[in-house]
Amino acid sequence: MRRSPADTAQSARKISRRALFLGGSQLAFMGILGLRMRYMQVDQADEFRLLAEENRVKFRLLPPARGLIYDRNGAVIAENEQTFRIVIRKEDASELDQVLVELERLIGLPLEEQERVRAELKKAGPSAPVTIADRLSWEAFSSVSANGPALPGVTPEVGLSRHYPLHEDFAHVVGYVGPVSDYDLSKMDNIDPLYRIPKFQIGKSGAESRLEDVLRGKAGSLRVEQNAYGRIIRELDRHEGEPGVNLQLTLDRNMQNFVQARLAGESASAVIMDVETGDILAAGSTPAFDPNLFVRGISSAAYNELLENDHRPLPSKSVQGAYPPGSTFKMVTAMAALEAGVVTPEDTVRCLGHTEIGGRRFHCWKRAGHGNVNLVGSLRHSCDVYYYEMAQRAGIENIAEMGRKLGLGLRYDLPLPGINSGLMPDKQWKLENRGAEWVVGDSLNAAIGQGFVLATPMQLAVMTARLATNREILPRMIKSIDGVEQHILGGAPLGLNENMLRSVRQGMFEVINSNRGTAFSARIEDDTTKMAGKTGTAQVRSAVVNNNNVPWIERDHALFVAFAPYNAPRYAVSVVVEHGGGGSSVAAPIARDLMLYALHGAVPPLAAYPSSQRNTIRERFKVMPLRDLDGDETTRGRA
Question: What does the pLDDT look like over 625-638, one tens digit per residue?
């Protein structure tokens, strides 16, 4: 069938329009494609050339600077120091043997270190850096850098390493950092990529460990171009990480140093606390250790020496050591009896040197007895028989409740690992933990701080601060984080009867300031800084011993707690000297020195001491290993 001329013309017009549309579309597509090809081939030529040669572009993590730690006055107690090191990566270690030989010539790399590098490379990932040598001198570092072409794959790096300028003084509080270990990684759920960097340092103890997440910071990144020999040609891209947050502690570095120096030679601990804020101004523990040894990698011999030391230099005794509080606990028993209404401050108990319960004698420390004593007299003389009687009247439940109210048996939220909660036992505790009923003898032992009762030096300081203020004082060790002041917790009224508490404080005052008190020789002469306190001697064996006739490990612990000034308390102090003997002869003089330092802000003036003791005190201060502001150890005595 023939098409009409009109149909033919109309069909031609349709085909022309389609052809024009298709042709235009193809032209537009080709134009866009051409522009894209030009952009990729010209504008992005360098980047795609590098991507095409991916083996020459390497990605590296940049460790962040660890946050600094300061004392309450802004003095640095944990800092970062610049270090020089050289590293190598498995993917670049094709000529390892030749490189190690050359490094032995340049920096004297020992054979055992060469073997270590080989072993670590076998375990490391392709791009993970393995440290060949760390803490190089500038000369050695320069020598390696200058001989780069002969050391394919070796990368010189400038890094940061932790340093503790005050050495032993803050070892137990600040702690130390060390290289990440497989054991560390096994304890983590979410592993930060930084931890995969060999020799990367993380907190191992103290505040460094507890506040690791805050101090660590966040990793940065680096892209570099390398040549065929593994030498970096240029840096392509760098994103700096976020440094760790800086911390300010409540501790005073000069006071901490004085505490450590005063406790030197003893296995001991002491805590100084501000009774208004709960700020810990010093938390000493002796003997100590130099945390810098752990940062650099302590030798097995040196570590074993610390482990085998019978004075236990590694634990922080101020929060980890739990001791029978001895007679320093008697204020707890007294307040329990007073609050329970079973005794008044004026009531007396006759002490004949012992109490007999169920055919068993419980002796007073003074075998001849103290005669009739009231509350104040019982504290002044530290009469055990008075407290045996209070235990029977008040009962262990009231005593335990009062102990907890005064801060014993509690675990405080401090930035330290392994904090011991001590033990404030009651009937339920014994039944659950010993499978036995509580008996009267348990109460008598507990009343004088023996038996099952345990307390840490930190808890004893809190107890003393609460007795001094009648407020729920809580210990605080972090003053600010990244410049933001941290809240002071606690401080609410305890609700204890102030008249009863005043009698207990009076007894503590007479312990030191009455010529018949057990710590009269440790008194302060200055009327404006008079101290109130309590001695304690805690047995470590069930039998009474003469401390002069038994080995050191079998001697009694010496304890003392105090607050001052008596009329307007500012500081609380607790001292525990392991196997020190008597609290009055050993711990009390230490506590007095520490209290006077806190009150005067410097080595105490001789005028604060009884005149008969000043020559002895002067000689003591002359030989104390105090540290100058630059961190160098010195002996100085100031009066």
Answer: 887 655 444 444 43
List Cα–Cα distances, 210 to 7, 72, 216, 253, 478, in angstroms: 91, 19, 11, 20, 12
Q: What percent of the chain shows pLDDT beyond 70? A: 89
What pLDDT, in 10s, does the model give residues 355-376?
Answer: 999 889 999 999 999 999 999 9
- b/e code 85-97 from CB counts within 10 Å (16+ = b): bbbbbbbbbebbe
Whole-angstrom distance, CA of residue 445 vs CA of residue 545: 17
Please count the residues of the chain: 639
Q: Enumerate residues 6+ apart whose C-beta is below 8 A from 117.
A: 88, 96, 100, 130, 132
**b/e burial code for range 294-306 (CB count within 10 A of at least 16 → b):** bbbebeeeeeeee
Q: Which phi and psi angles does 177 have, rounded to 5°?
A: -110, 165
Q: At what angle do helices 588-600 and 253-263 cross, to 10 degrees?
A: 160
Catalytic residues: 327
User: Which residue type does 382 have?
Assistant: S
d(CA 280, CA 486): 14
Contacts of 476 (CB under 8 A, 6+ apart): 250, 277, 278, 279, 280, 486, 488, 489
Tokens describing residue 213: 């997440």
Please provide residue 73's backbone torsions phi and psi, each rounded to the nearest 5 degrees.
-100, 10
Pick the closest to residue 508 from 539, 484, 530, 485 (CA basis).
530
> Which helix (H) or strand (E) is 101 found in, with range?
helix 96-107
Where on the phi/psi map is residue 395: left (φ > 0), alpha (ψ -120 to 50), or beta? left
Burial of 43 (C-beta count, 10 Å sphere; 0-12/13-18/19+): exposed
Q: Does residue 156 have a cis bond before it (omega within 30 degrees)?
A: no
